[in-house]
Design brief:
44% helix; alpha/beta; globular; 2 domains; eight-stranded parallel beta barrel; 10 strands; TIM Barrel; single chain
Length: 369
């Protein structure tokens, strides 16, 4: 396993993200026995960083990962959790929520704690409720070992947040598509210039870069026949020196074993391989791509539209040009989840980290259908 340092803490370059844990068939319930196997595989292979959050899996991710990690020595792993400020209306709410998270995770402190999904609106809430002094106090008490934030706003806003506190780290969406498309490059450079360590989320863009179009897959296979698509995406991110942890939301053992192989036999990308990625990137994007990662921050829609599923199907249509399958996918959606239920209220756009004009896209999809 590759390791890097955040301050004086040695962390595994590959971290286990707990937003997309395996679930039981035809259910939203987490498959706990499978999670136990995955964590065991991760632990014995050298993964030390586990990342959860209050909203993941409808509030169950914290409980499950806390339960599963309980069997391992506390000083042999690092647990990251996040504060959802949008659920708080006062500093007392923040205090109560933090204590609830410690209890759910069955720990006495968090190794890494983040201000979750930070944007300017939420940044103002932190200031209004005077949360930053409280978090600094928790750090002084040892209940938080490293303090950071995850970022979900326009790239130019990150500097304002970065300057507000003496942050240990920040978590950004970073992959070979978003390097330019979401200006992840600028975010990375700003954080690096301020000596703030970078943790990467969505390195495989919600699984999209593990399941690329046939043209891109052929490009990758010709260059490195035995390498998975996901390994290309992970190695791309890993080449940046200030990237300290790369979070992968692994949903099964096969994904975990593939990612572990990438970092147990880690090779830095060559100049030629970087050119391969640029060629594949051109093949992936085309003209019809919607930059949705399936994070579900837009949900629930007040009118029932299943936004992430519709965009996922539409992007596959954009890549494969199979209109018949796209129409069939839409027909398979329950009637109340269809694109034509969109009333362009705009609520979804306020929560979308990608700033997608969702109502416009729904209108376009409706016209295709």
């Amino acid at each position: 396993m590759e390791y890097r340092y955040i301050k004086n803490t040695k962390v595994s370059l590959l971290g286990m993200g707990c937003m997309r844990l395996p679930v039981l068939p035809d259910s939203e319930e987490i498959d706990v026995p499978l999670v136990e196997k995955m964590v065991e595989e991760a632990y014995k292979s050298g993964i030390t960083y586990f990342d959860t959050a209050y909203p993941y899996h409808n509030g169950k991710s914290e409980e499950v990962i806390g339960q599963v990690l309980k069997k391992y020595p506390r000083d042999h792993f690092y647990l990251a959790d996040k504060l959802p400020i949008w659920k708080c209306h006062s500093l007392d709410d923040v205090r109560n929520l933090f204590e609830e998270q410690l209890k759910k995770c069955q720990v006495e402190y968090f190794d890494f704690y983040l201000c979750h999904a930070m944007n300017m609106e939420r940044f103002e809430m932190y200031q209004k409720y005077q949360v930053f002094p409280y978090l600094k106090q928790l750090k002084k008490e040892g209940k938080i070992r490293h303090l950071g934030f995850s970022f979900h706003d326009a790239p130019q806003k990150i500097e304002i947040i970065a300057d507000a506190l003496d942050w240990d780290f920040a978590q950004i969406q970073f992959n070979y598509l978003d390097y330019e498309m979401q200006d992840a490059r600028k975010q990375y450079e700003i954080l690096t210039s301020k000596n703030i360590s970078v943790i990467v989320m969505e390195p495989v863009r919600g699984g999209m870069l593990a399941n690329v179009c046939p043209q891109a897959e052929e490009i990758f296979r010709n260059a490195r026949p035995q390498a998975s698509n996901a390994s290309w995406a992970l190695r791309y991110v890993a080449q940046f020196e200030n990237v300290k942890v790369i979070l992968s939301g692994m949903s099964n053992l096969e994904q975990m074993k593939d990612n572990l192989h990438t970092f147990s036999t880690y090779e830095v990308l060559s100049c030629e391989e970087n050119q391969v990625i640029q060629q594949a990137k051109k093949a992936i994007l085309g003209d019809d791509f919607i930059p949705c990662t399936g994070c579900r921050y837009c949900m629930p829609c007040p009118f029932g539209v299943n936004i992430p599923q519709i965009f996922k199907s539409y992007n596959l249509y954009g890549i494969h040009k199979n209109k018949e399958k796209f129409c069939q996918d839409m027909q398979n959606l329950e009637e109340e989840h269809q694109p034509d239920r969109c009333r362009a209220c705009g609520k979804c756009m306020k929560s979308c980290p990608q700033r997608i004009k969702i109502p416009d896209q729904m209108k376009k999809i409706g016209e295709i259908l």
